[in-house]
Amino acid sequence: TGGSDVEIRDGEVETRDGVEIEVAANIGTLDDIDLAVERGADGVGLFRTEFLFLDRESPPDEDEQYEAYLQALEAFDGGRIVVRTLDIGGDKPIPYLDLPDEENPFLGERGIRRSLGPDSDLFETQIRALLRAAGSADGANLSVMLPLVASLEELHEAREVIDDISVDLDAVGIEYEMPEFGIMIETPAAVFMADEFAPHVDFFSIGTNDLAQYVMAAERGNERVSDLGDYRQPAVLRAIAQTVEAADGDDCWVGMCGEMAGDPELTELLVGLGLDELSMSAVTVPHVKAAVTETDTAEAEALAARVRSASTKSEVTEILTESQ
Ligand code: PEP
Ligand code: MG
User: Fold this and answer.
1) With contact defined as beta carbons under 8 Å apart, do 28 and 281 qualify?
2) What share of the chain is helix, strand, coil (3-state, %, to 5)?
3) Which residues are catalytic?
4) What is the pLDDT of residue 89?
5) Strand 20-27 relative to strand 44-48, pairing
6) Whose CA is nearest to atom 8 of ligand 1?
7) What's the DSSP call for residue 49?
8) Three-class SS of residue 279?
9) What is the pTM of this model?
C-alpha cells in the first residue's frame, strides 16, 4: 500500500456500471486531514476523536473541540465528515479520565457506555462543539456517530442528549445545525438489532476491527487468535451481509470504517455486499478508488453470493483469490 505508482483521483468514483461509492479516510489527529485531502478522499468516514484527548493533562474544552471539528469540515469542500463521539476504554485508555480497573476492559465500560455514564459531561461538551461547528462551516456536511452501541436504549438516550443540547442552543441563540445521526455496527447485538435501529438513524458504519473481535470472541491484536479474529471468517461476513440487508428499505446508508474497508482486494466483495461508503487509512484511498472503477456491480453481487455461501475461511480466501 501507499505506492507512488497509483493514480490519485479527486472527486467521487463510480463502478463501471455507474454506481457511486463514497471513498473516505479515517483520521485521528488534525495532521491526518492534509494527508486525506492529498490522497483524494471524498471526506472523512471516521474521525477518531479520542486522539484530541491523548497526550495531555485534561480534556480539550468546547471551543478547542469546535475549532478542530470546523477545521475538518472546512478541509473537505462539502464532503461528508463522520465524527465519532469519544470511544474511550477497552484498548484506548486516557490517564486523566480515571478509568475503572476491569478484568475484561473490552467487555466493560467503553465507548457509548462511558458517554452515557461517567463521561456524560464530556459527551455533552463534545455534542455542543459538534452542533456549533456544523452551524459555522459553509456547506458543512457533518455526521455524528456513536461507538459500540448494543441496545436501542443507548441509541435513544444519546439522541435525547443531542436534542436537549439543540434546545439549549436555541434558547440562548447560539448558531448550530443538526448533523446526520448514525451508529457504528461493531457488536453482535447491533447486528441482530440492526433492523430495529435502522428506522432511527441516518446511517450505519460497520467497524470490522471490533465486530470481528466480538463475533469470533477473539481479541483484536492478539496474535495467538488472529486467524480466528479475521474479517474473512464466514461468521463475520454474514454479520456484514445481515447488517446491509437490515438497513434495506429504510433511509439508512451503510458504510464500513474498519480495516477491512481499506483492502483493495476486498473492494469488489464489499460493493457486491451493498456497502455505500468505505472509509480507511488515507494511504489506501487511491487503491480502493481504483478498485471501485474496475468493479461491475452485477459481477460483484455474484461474487458476494458465492462468498456468502462459503462455510470456511479457506473457502472464502479461495473464492477471493480466483476472482482477482
Ligand atoms: C472498528 O472497531 O472497526 C473501528 C473502526 O473502530 P476502532 O478501530 O477505533 O475501534
Ligand atoms: Mg471499534
Assistant:
1) no
2) 50, 15, 35
3) 257
4) 85
5) parallel
6) 209
7) T
8) strand
9) 0.97
Q: Identify the burial level of 155 via C-beta atoms within 10 angstroms of its C-beta, where 0-12 means exposed, 13-18 middle and 19 or more buried.
A: buried
- Is the Cβ atom of 186 under 6 angstroms away from ligand 1? yes
Residue tagged 464532503 (cell numbers)? 79
CB of 293 shorter than 6 A to ligand 1: no
Cell of 303: 461474487
Q: How far are the Cα atoms of 107, 113, 176, 321 from residue 150, in angstroms, in the given order? A: 11, 9, 29, 34
Residue with the smallest CA separation from ligand 1 atom 9 is 48
Cell 481504483 belongs to 290
pLDDT, one tens digit per residue, over 98-123 is 889 999 999 999 999 999 999 999 99
pLDDT given for residue 304 in this prediction: 98
pLDDT for residue 94: 87
The reply to whether ligand 1 has any atom less than 6 angstroms from the CB of 286 is no
Residue numbers of the chain with a pLDDT score lower than 50 = 1-2
The residue type of 279 is S
Q: How far is the CA of 107 from the centre of ligand 2 (A)?
A: 12
Q: How do beta strands 277-281 and 20-27 pair?
A: parallel
